[in-house]
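Input structure tokens:
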């Protein structure tokens, strides 16, 4: 099944319970090597969503702006991209290109992500593939320009979203997370993995 909203392709329940559990184990290993941190926004307020990355590059933000780094802020290399996430990419995008970055976002019950575009990558020709794990999240999809009408859809654990073509540069955000809606993560919360080609 594929649900299309403004060119965003959502595949509900793409990962079964066993695959979700395996992926959580792999993400634990990423977080052990490259701990989650709260990026500082360019305007000086730390983000409530905590983040880390895997792959050749990791996403980072501070007072100087948003960018990709070769190393975790602690100085260690970013870990390898979780194999379960890589196989999702291969199944959907193919083997021609591997992603450069797997951004890992962790949301507690209070975290949200304001409307934004993903345009820190040099290459917009490849899709972004998003994998949701844990608590449900209300995902809002907007327009190429800021403002205007939006549409919202709940993302649930195991759902995969593909942001390609014209959808790649749509504004989007996470309005809220439904705490306690999933038992996948023992301490609750939501993980979102986005696989990206950076350059
Ligand atoms: C639509 N993450 O990390 S994933 C982000 O659930 C981000 O953590 C959200 O937005 C999250 O930048 C949403 C779905 C997503 C990712 C990239 C997109 C939607 C997108 C790029 C273009 C349009
Ligand atoms: Fe985004």
């Amino acid at each position: 099944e594929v649900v299309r909203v403004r060119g965003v392709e959502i595949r509900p329940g793409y990962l079964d319970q066993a695959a979700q559990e395996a992926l959580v184990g792999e993400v634990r290993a990423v977080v052990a090597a490259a701990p989650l941190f709260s990026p500082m926004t360019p305007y000086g307020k730390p983000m409530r969503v905590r983040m880390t990355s895997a792959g050749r590059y990791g996403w980072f933000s501070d007072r100087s702006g948003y960018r990709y780094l070769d190393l975790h802020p602690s100085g260690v290399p970013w870990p390898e991209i979780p194999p379960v996430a890589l196989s999702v990419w291969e199944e959907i995008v193919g083997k021609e290109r591997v992603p450069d970055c797997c951004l890992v976002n962790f949301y507690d019950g209070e975290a949200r992500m304001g409307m934004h575009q993903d345009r820190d990558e040099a290459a917009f020709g490849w899709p972004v593939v998003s994998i949701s794990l844990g608590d449900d999240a209300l995902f809002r999809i907007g327009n190429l320009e800021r403002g205007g009408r939006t549409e919202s859809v709940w993302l649930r654990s195991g759902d995969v979203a593909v942001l390609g073509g014209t959808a790649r540069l749509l504004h989007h955000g996470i309005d809220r997370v439904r705490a306690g809606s999933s038992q996948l993560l023992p301490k609750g919360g939501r993980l979102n993995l986005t696989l990206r080609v950076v350059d």
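The longest helix spans residues 17-33. The chain has a mean pLDDT of 97.
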